[in-house]
């Protein structure tokens, strides 16, 4: 067995990251019902390229993500919605507004990660949480997994996401006519990225 591939779930479960506006906590079992409610929204399914799942399937998906050494998911908490102060290890469902994940899905290049971000709660959009969360996720991925290239695949009509990734310094690298989707990439050695996470 390749030991490098074994995911240290206990270690990862303890990690939470605090930014200016958001706190990223590990995706816990307690988060699944609210996540499942979000993913009934056709607009979110379309924006994230996801299929509708039953609650049981969502629990299975959560388990498989937790065990996959090449996938790392955090739940985004809106700091303004946290009640009674942040407690590490608590799910803080009251402040859960979205998720951000990376997936090292190119087995020939494990230093390339696809990144996805969703701020599902409309009341928490447009407050900087998406940008804050994406930056924290990328800084974490560079430090912990030595990621060199980030890739995002965004539907051509998803203007908010395209603008967010362009703002972060991603450049368009290809377009799929079949999926009506733009692929964007960012190299961590790009000067603009170094400045962003400094
Ligand atoms: C796209 C999304 C992640 C943005 O998150 P957010 O927290 O609302 O965005 P932020 O407040 O951090 O905005 C950061 C930048 O994104 C862009 N942006 C965000 N919302 C925008 C909108 N409605 N229209 C145009 N640009 C927008 C802007 O460039 C903005 O920077 P600015 O405020 O300096 O103009 C969020 O709207 C979302 O989850 N949408 C649905 C799911 C989705 O499309 N996910 C992407 C699949 S990978």
TrEMBL record:
Keywords: Acyltransferase, Transferase
SUPFAM superfamilies: Acyl-CoA N-acyltransferases (Nat)
Keyword Cell membrane: no
Keyword DNA repair: no
Domain named N-acetyltransferase: residues: 23-171
InterPro entries named in the record: Acyl_CoA_acyltransferase, GNAT_dom, NAT9-like
GO terms assigned for molecular function: N-acetyltransferase activity
Entry's family note: Belongs to the acetyltransferase family. GNAT subfamily.
Official protein name in the record: N-acetyltransferase domain-containing protein
Organism: Dendrobium nobile (Orchid)
């Amino acid at each position: 067995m390749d030991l490098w591939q074994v995911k240290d779930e206990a270690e990862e479960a303890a990690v939470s990251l605090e930014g200016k506006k958001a706190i990223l906590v590990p995706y816990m079992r307690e988060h699944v019902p609210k996540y499942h409610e979000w993913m009934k929204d056709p607009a979110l399914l379309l924006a994230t390229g996801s299929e509708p799942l039953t609650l049981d399937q969502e629990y299975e998906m959560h388990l498989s993500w937790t065990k996959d050494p090449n996938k790392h998911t955090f739940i985004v908490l809106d700091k303004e919605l946290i009640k009674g102060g942040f407690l590490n290890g608590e799910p803080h469902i009251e402040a859960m507004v979205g998720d951000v994940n990376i997936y090292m899905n190119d087995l020939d290049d494990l230093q390339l990660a696809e990144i996805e971000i969703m701020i599902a709660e409309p009341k928490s959009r447009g407050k900087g949480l998406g940008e804050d969360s994406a930056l924290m996720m990328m800084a974490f991925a560079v430090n912990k997994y030595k990621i060199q290239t980030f890739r995002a695949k965004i539907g051509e009509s998803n203007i908010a996401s395209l603008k967010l990734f362009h703002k972060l310094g991603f450049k368009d690298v290809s377009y799929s006519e079949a999926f009506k989707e733009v692929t964007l990439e960012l190299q961590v050695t790009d000067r603009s990225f170094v400045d962003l996470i400094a």
